[in-house]
Specification:
single chain; 268 residues; alpha/beta; Metallo-beta-lactamase, Chain A; seven-stranded mixed β-sheet; 9 helices; globular; Metallo-B-lactamas; RibonucZ/Hydroxyglut_hydro
């Protein structure tokens, strides 16, 4: 089988992704209720007891809403750095010592044949991270909830076979939107979220001949639309010399209310 993944949901309504190799499966974040997570997983043919670990990016509720209940129900260990544990423990209820695993930022942990590395990102949380998965010489990178793509982040996620990248908002829609200015300022800041424009500019540095697919993720329901995100990102790529045949276009969608199809991460 190699490595494959499915995004169960993306955005402020809840975030979760399954990454699976031949003999292990991990859940990155658990931002929906445990019941909803179980439903979405079953839609993808995965049962809760098949999850070997939950990896936490940060403690915001749209990433940990169902974390405690799901971990208790299926006796799954939770991996997070110490600062994130300190911020989330009061929100997840009773977790056994065996389920509480410290995975410090920058550490690499193997789940079966998958080599999993966390890396620091810029977001208004205790110690937020993204994750890179490598297996059989292929690379999958997850990068959402980051105010900007730093040089360190770029070095971690560039040259991925498949990349899940935040494209949270259209700047003009956000500026004209209903949010109070303090929230707008937070979203637009270096510890907020990537705009469509920022995602496109980042991809100009991240994409190589190796990159086959890029999933635009964590779109705002109030200040973005998938068609707009794709158009903006694609225009920036084309303006920087990236042109694709229709059948080989790398941009893919994520959804706030349903999973993406399983994606087999393979080299050509």
């Amino acid at each position: 089988m190699g490595m494959r993944f499915t995004n169960l949901g993306s955005g402020s309504t809840g975030n979760a992704t399954i990454v699976q190799c031949e003999d292990k499966a991990v859940l990155v974040d658990a931002g929906m209720s445990a019941k909803r997570l179980d439903e979405l997983m079953r839609m993808q043919g995965v049962a809760g007891h098949e999850i070997d670990a939950i990896l936490v990016t940060h403690e915001h509720s749209d990433h940990i809403k169902g974390l405690g209940a799901f971990a208790r129900k299926f006796n799954v260990p939770i991996y997070a750095n110490e600062a994130t544990w300190g911020a989330l423990e009061r929100h997840v209820g009773q977790i056994t010592a065996e389920q509480r695993v410290i995975m410090e930022t920058g550490e690499t942990v193997n789940f079966g044949s998958m080599r999993t590395t966390s890396y620091a990102i810029s977001h208004d949380a205790a110690e937020p991270v993204g994750y890179v998965f490598e297996d059989d010489n292929v690379k999958l990178s997850l990068a959402t909830d980051l105010g900007y793509v730093s040089d360190k982040v770029r070095r971690m996620i560039e040259d991925s076979d498949v990349l899940v990248l935040e494209s949270n908002h259209d700047v003009n829609m956000l500026r004209m939107g209903r949010y109070p200015w303090n929230i707008k300022r937070r979203i637009l800041s270096d510890v907020g979220h990537l705009s469509n424009e920022a995602a496109g500019e980042a991809l100009c540095q991240l994409m190589t001949d190796r990159t086959k697919r890029v999933y635009l993720a964590h779109l705002s329901l109030d200040h973005n639309m998938m068609d707009l995100a794709r158009m903006t990102v694609n225009e920036i790529l084309e303006n920087n010399g990236f042109f694709f045949k229709r059948e080989e276009h790398p941009l893919r969608e994520t959804y706030h209310d349903r999973p993406t199809a399983w994606d087999e991460v393979r080299r050509r």
